[in-house]
Amino acid sequence: MSAPPLVDVVSLFPGLNQNLAALLRSLRPDDWMRSTVCREWSVKDIAAHILDGQLRRLAFGRDAYIPAGPSVTQLEETVRLINRLNADWVRAAQRLSPRVLIDHLEWAGPQLAEYFQSLDPYRPATFPVAWAGESSSANWFDIARDYTEQWHHQQQIRDAVHAPPLTARKWLNPVLATFVRCLPHAYRETMAAEGAAVQFEVTGDAGDCWCLRRQNSVWNLTVGPAPDPNAGITLDSAAAWRLFTRGLTPSEARRAATLTGDQALAAVALHATAVM
Q: Which of 3, 146, 170, 208 has the fewest CB atoms below 10 angstroms from its CB?
């Protein structure tokens, strides 16, 4: 077993953007108002949220533009600020037509892909990946996090309008390989004997197997099955990405999963999240 390799998704953004634009242009007027898993957000609201994320990344990252506003230092404050910014944008975007949203997504998406391409993957990112418990992250991890954000919101739209999923291994495996990096943080308060191992397996073409091992009083993530795990959890890829994005409750995820060995130790993974 070895540490998980860098997740390189830079080349996937153009195709991801093209799939989103094609999907949105295929929608009927009533499709835009369909409900989604994001509680009060419609398909149109999620499309607007994707655009907001792209524009903000260009402004903050590429253009180094920091708007006036409150400074935050605690994770809880950051989450509240993000939620407020998201809600403000979606509310304002209700004035925009679907065509205007699509046109802006087709403008912003390629520019963001070009910006990500320009970054040194190993340099410090503008923002840390907080859901992984990091206070500083490399660019590649932050870019991969952005990819998972755009991918899973597009998939939420696809679910809502019953469009074919974008779940071939090319698209979904990098999402899962990024999401599993939240597991050490999810287990941070879980005590176990030195050397204890939890195997996390995602089945299907897009899946893989990872292992959490307790070493020097912390949990470390590795790639590959554990020789003799103390606990194991197995999910198919559809349940796995929904678990990490709060699309399933822990009880729903428990019904979709197979747990082996120490059930309580395995079940900690059912509460893991890889979104803010």
A: 3
pLDDT tens by residue, 197-231? 999 999 999 999 999 999 999 999 999 998 899 99
Extended strands (E) in the chain? 197-203, 209-215, 218-223, 231-236, 258-261
Domains of the chain in start order, with CATH, are 10-166 (1.20.120.450), 181-271 (3.30.1050.10)
Q: Which residues pair with 201 in a beta bridge?
A: 209, 234
Kindly list the distances between the CA atom of residue 136 and the CA atoms of 7, 83, 102, 255, in Å, as whole numbers in the listed order.
17, 22, 33, 35
pLDDT band at 5 (very low <50, low <70, confident <90, very high): very high
Q: How far apart are CA 27 and CA 236, in angstroms?
A: 29
Half-sphere exposure in the Cβ direction for 71 (13 Å, CA): 1
Rounded Cα distance between 223 and 245, Å, is: 21
For the whole model, what pTM was predicted?
A: 0.94
Torsion, CA 211, CA 2, CA 145, CA 79, rounded to 10 = 50
| 103 to 92, 99, 112, 155, 249: CA distances (angstroms) | 17, 6, 15, 20, 35
For 119, how many CA atoms within 13 A lie in the half-sphere containing its CB?
26
